[in-house]
Amino acid sequence: MTKKRxxxxxxxxxxxxxxxxxxxxxxxxAHAADNTPRREFRAAWFSTVANIDWPSEEAxxxxxxxxxEMLQLLDRMQELNLNTVIFQVRPTADALYRSSLEPWSAWxxxxxxxxxxxxxxxxxxxIKEAHKRKMDVHVWINPYRVxxxxxxxxxxxxxxxxFRKPEMFWKYNGQWYFEPGLDETRLWLCNVVADLVxxxxxxxxxxxxxxYPYPDHKTKLPDEACFKQNPRGFDNIEDxxxxxxxxxxxxxxxxxxAIKPLVQFGxxxxxxxxxxxSDPRGSATSGLQNxxxxxxDVLLWMEEGWIxxxxxxxxxxxxxxxxxxxxxxxxWAEHCGNTRLYIGLxxxxxxxxxxxxxxxxxxxxKDPWASGNEICRQLRLHKQxxxxxxxxxxxxxxxxxxxxxxCDSLKTNYFKTYVAPPAPRQE
Length: 427
Description:
Elements: H1 3-9, H2 14-21, E1 41-46, H3 63-79, E2 84-90, H4 106-109, H5 122-132, E3 136-141, H6 161-164, E4 169-172, E5 175-178, H7 183-199, E6 204-207, H8 224-229, H9 237-259, E7 264-267, H10 290-294, H11 298-304, E8 309-310, H12 325-335, E9 340-346, H13 353-358, H14 374-383, E10 388-394, H15 396-400, H16 406-414
Parallel strand pairs: 1-2, 1-10, 2-3, 3-6, 6-7, 7-8, 8-9, 9-10
Antiparallel strand pairs: 4-5
């Protein structure tokens, strides 16, 4: 264990050390023969928060309709030769799977904590049906978010941890969050993940970019009291916040690997680690930064081997002034080290002029998202960068609308035949 790793873990209770001392099973994976088709990660985010992709608002609370919709979406993914589903099962400290720790999600059932009309386990169904179609399943969780601003906490189920342990949470810009500086928060998060890894035949645990909330520079984060109570040797609150997230990522890695070493741990951060103006190691970009604004030191996580793969959300066009997709794709390729690199692509941004005309909308002809198939340009670029081993589309339904013929291009040019996703990374 490196000094950085020891420092980032900090002082923890005995629960984690029991996991660490339990030992990890030996893993041995043979290298693929030279004539084996190239593996790559071909995935889509299957969003459930606010019913973005599934279930539809019409299907909320209706099990049979939800089943039919899920199977239809998986069939469409199979037609495109996608091989991985990133299924959002914990959007706001709730559950789209049968959990004894957190309540059923209102986006599934209509009311948090209540079951559907015909009880079933959506994650169990997803795993069975995805595996039938030769797709891996990575479960997607949000670590700290408790609600959306438009969902008052009065709508949380009475059994929610929010009401049992109110001291573990704070409010920022209309939303409630777990306090990342508490040992209890990391323990709860690890327990949720351990439960998922133990009970389900999943291939990965996945988190996206929501660590500390995106900043409103007019409003301070309400965590100064927690910092003063337990600074853990830090004088600077921003370093302390980064260390809170570092500890969570490290402990989640160790929790997963102690139970099932072959389950992958991946994170999809905002696309900029740091700008070169802030750090000579940064990218030639401008704007919000993971390290400074979200307290997510992704570079450290990759260097320390705490994550198996990284999916930076590169939702900008090639040539974008503030954040050029090509610049960022090459930057992540240069800095990913032994961490597998997949790129997050913005299917939702692709504009279709014909569809816009039908809807009475006018598009800017100079907008790269409306003047050609920008996603295909990005895919061609990625083929020139060997470190990039796949892509993830945000999100499934916008992709399946086939904007600018994107799905047609995937089937005829980029994903002509099925290939398996990359094999689990060895520790």
